[in-house]
Fold these 2 entries.
Entry 1:
Amino acid sequence: MDKRTFLKLSGMAGAGLVVAPWLGCQPSGDDKTLRSGEKPDSGAGDVWGAEAFALPALSFGMDALEPAIDAETMAIHHGKHHAGYVRKLNAAIEGRAKGIDDNLITLLKGVDSADEALRNNGGGHFNHTLYWEVLTPGGPSEPQGALAAHIVSDLGGIDALKAAFAKAGSQQFGSGWAWLSLDDAGQLFVSSTPNQDNPLMTQCVERSGTPILGMDVWEHAYYLNYQNSRTDYIQAFLGLVNWESVALRFQGAMGQVG
Ligand code: MN
């Protein structure tokens, strides 16, 4: 398959029609992402720039989730931790050839487990962006529609999902995340990952898929309010889930399932 075909596939993937094959991301200066016989193109847009990714603004105030998640935790988590992942992600990929890996999702799907800068900081940016978007002080309290039906058929119902999700978060040793994801066969599953890994990272997880709900269980997500009581934070988190946002992500992921 030549580069033109790859680019075409990549563009179609961006339109949600085809999942392009992943060829691997390479460290800066390595030209293995180029197809044989081709030379690097120095034109703008073919390599990652210095500010490829930006810290997203929150859709609610820092104090909107109180008392479950306090404003100081939110401010530090968003303005320091997430901002740091964005800054280090940009530094890690600046100057790299984009190839077909022209967005964060394709970068993470193919990230080499040894590429710690991209794995940790790209994961950190993706994971926190998802985290802010699935939290709400005023969303519906339970899943609806197709998502609710799949939660019943795949996981045994919302109570079983919440129990499995809470268990995944509480049993993740040290820092990490709990996930609800959709696999390539269209099955929902619950998992956990260490550090800033996520289920997109096929080379880093036992079961890969598209995460539609993510819960940060790093101590920085809860320690000011809950100290060592991670289980109390988990129960508070489950009361803040924006199931409308999760359902939209579920619909998008189902659209990608072949
Ligand atoms: Mn965090």
Entry 2:
Amino acid sequence: MSAEPFIVVLIGPGGAGKGTLARALVAGDHALWLSKSWTTRPVRATEDGSEYHFVDRETFERAIEDDAFLEWAEFHGNLYGTPRPRPPEGAEVLLEIEVQGAEQVVERARESVVFLIVAPSMQQLEERLRGRGDSDEHVTTRLASAPAEMARGQKIARYVIVNDDVQRASGEILSILEELRQQRRTPSIKD
Ligand code: 5GP
């Protein structure tokens, strides 16, 4: 049995509601610590600047050279990265990232559990993307890449969660996590 805290990873196409879900999870479970990512993308009109550590490309690239990231990826022309996590003692790290980054985490982290978050339908995915105030062009690109992101995500995800309602979906994830914690507390004979 391992005492290392889990790294819990939420992946899924833009508009699936990973961000809202991540916030509901940390509000519902204080053992979870949400990592704050770095990005080179501009702040959206609907954001207040606290969503990411917003930096220019040069600063980001310097941080890559300094080996400051657990994972990083280029996504639709912008860089995104998870700084090496420093959670409070015993806390589980929660990441809300895209699939290329999640593949790196699965490869590098000792114990990770990946949840693929999907919207109930492509129509809802589109509505959610439009609701964020992004340009039509941006919405079209993000929608076009969603099926490939989901197919790639399915290869590393242990669970697929339909985000039909944030309270229900976060409840489902929290009960799965509780079950996984229980399993680690009760080692099998092999351990
Ligand atoms: P957005 O620009 O819509 O905020 O995010 C675009 C995508 O980047 C989303 O799928 C989001 O989950 C992902 N993302 C956010 N932070 C990180 C990160 O630190 N690393 C990686 N690989 N992806 C991230």
